[in-house]
Every structure is written in structure tokens, then in C-alpha cells.
């Protein structure tokens, strides 16, 4: 009808987009949840009560156990945490309009419901994920390792690349499927024919990822975060969140779940004796809204959602910015609510 607004004709949503600037050391804020965490701290400073609500993953469970995909992490230092789920019975197609619109609003082009779900969770909570066509894992084994120098591999952008001996790869046995933490390959990607998905969520060594991305001239949303250091605790939470979202938009059921965790810490611990500046937790715990309200001195524990908090000065810096959460025996990601 003449005069009908284009917004109604094309079913366009009205929304507001906020652009923020981040310094390279703030990988923890490269997501909506990361920004919300800092906004909460700022509001609490001004005496405004705020609650950080994270998506619930309580509905995640294995529906019908099938033959598992074996996972073999050869270099646990390069991949200290690797999680994966197998989802069977998916139907790949366009994403719902609400997900499409949200991705478009942040400059991403929708691809299909499975890939869009992984991108949605990446920007929602900051954990890169990768979805493989499980039927293309013919050896039934996912191996995380390096390959011989000069091995050919064609990435999703259609470019054939020669691998370096230090490039960490996700392989189907000995066949490369993905440059770990950087970019997937053409042979194992999600297509409209995909009916089974192997979903990966991992923590990769930032230095290894940065060197690999630079060698191949690649800069992806995943490498951008991995090379700056993500929160290792997010891996399994993000995996469950993404799996639930995939089942919501593409159907299917979880039939296998795998988690490898080696050599990581829930949080770093520092004592005032480690440096000249004593840490007084009485004021900081109040500012951080610690429900325990303890007034002990000289001891604090800093959550590692900021990967760079590795010495006393960083811990104190975070405490003064209301980003230090003192140990209460409560896991942030176990307080999720819908």
C-alpha cells in the first residue's frame, strides 16, 4: 500500500547500538556480558543496585547417549582446556529473525542457524566456538596437534595455505579440519546437508594463536579474543549455552559431551607479603558487593575473567575498579538465571 513505512514492509526492528572503545588488555570486556559486568560495578559505585543476569544452562543434559567422538589433545600446554558436544538431528537453515537482526546490528552477516548461534554466543559472553559437521569426522577422533611444515590446508575463505610446524590444528585423525583459534576449513564446515554437529569450545595459548594468525595474515573474531586471553572458566558454560541455543533454533539432541581440563586455576591468590603494598579487603569487599562482607586483611583472590591479572599490581588495579571479586565459594557461572 502506498505510504506504508519501509520499516513495516521489510519487518525492520528499531534498536539502539552503543559503540565503545577498548584497550588491547581488556579482552574480558569484548562481549555484552563483559561490558555489563563493568556497568554493574559502576552503578554500584554510585549506590545504584544492579544484578548481572546470565543465561541459564540448567536445561543442558545428554538426551540419548551414542557412540562418542574420541578427543585426543596431544599438546595440553597449547590447549589446556578443550570441551565438545555432539548434537544429532539438527536441521540447518536460516536463523529466526530476532537472531538475524541482532547479528546485523553488530555488523555480522547471518549464515545459518548453527553458525549464527555460535557467533551469537561469542559476542554475548566472549567465548569463541566452532561447529564442525560431525559426519565429516570420519575417523571418529578429534585430535589437537601440530602437523608437518608445508601441509596444505584450505580455510573457509577459500585460500589454500601452507601450514607451519607450530600451527596448532584441530584434526580428523591426521586430516586438518581447522586452524585452532583462528579459522575453520572448507571440508568440515556446516552446510544445509549437515544433520550432526560437533561443537567445540576451548582455551588456546594466546601466544601460539597470535603467532599463527600473524603468519597467515588472518584476523578473525576468534583469534582477536584468543590472542588477548579469554576466561578459561567460560569454556564449558559457553558450550552448554551454545548447544541449548542450537537446539532451540535448529532442533536436535545432545548425544555426547567431552571436557578436558588440565593445568588451570579457578582464581589467582595473592598475599600482601608478596609486595610492598598491603591489600585491605574491608573497603574493597564492600565496593565489590561481597555478600560475605568479611573484613580480613592482606588476602584476596581475583577471578580470572581478566586473563592478565597475574601479579599483585594487576590484582590491586582490578580491586580499585570494583572488578575484584573476593572469594565467597560461589561460582559466577553457577548463579545463572533465565
What key phrases describe this protein's structure?
single chain, 338 residues, alpha+beta, five-stranded mixed β-sheet, four-stranded antiparallel β-sheet
Q: What does this entry look like structurally?
A:
This protein has helices spanning 6-9, 32-45, 97-105, 113-125, 206-215, 221-226, 234-250, 281-287, 312-320; strands at 70-73, 81-88, 129-133, 141-146, 152-154, 160-162, 168-172, 175-179, 183-184, 196-203, 253-261, 267-271, 299-303. It has 338 residues and is an alpha+beta fold. The protein has a five-stranded mixed β-sheet with strand order 1-4-7-8-9.
Question: What layout of secondary structure does this protein have?
Answer:
Blueprint: H1 6-9, H2 32-45, E1 70-73, E2 81-88, H3 97-105, H4 113-125, E3 129-133, E4 141-146, E5 152-154, E6 160-162, E7 168-172, E8 175-179, E9 183-184, E10 196-203, H5 206-215, H6 221-226, H7 234-250, E11 253-261, E12 267-271, H8 281-287, E13 299-303, H9 312-320
Parallel strand pairs: 1-4
Antiparallel strand pairs: 2-10, 2-11, 3-10, 4-7, 5-6, 7-8, 8-9, 12-13
Helix pairs in contact: 3-4, 4-7
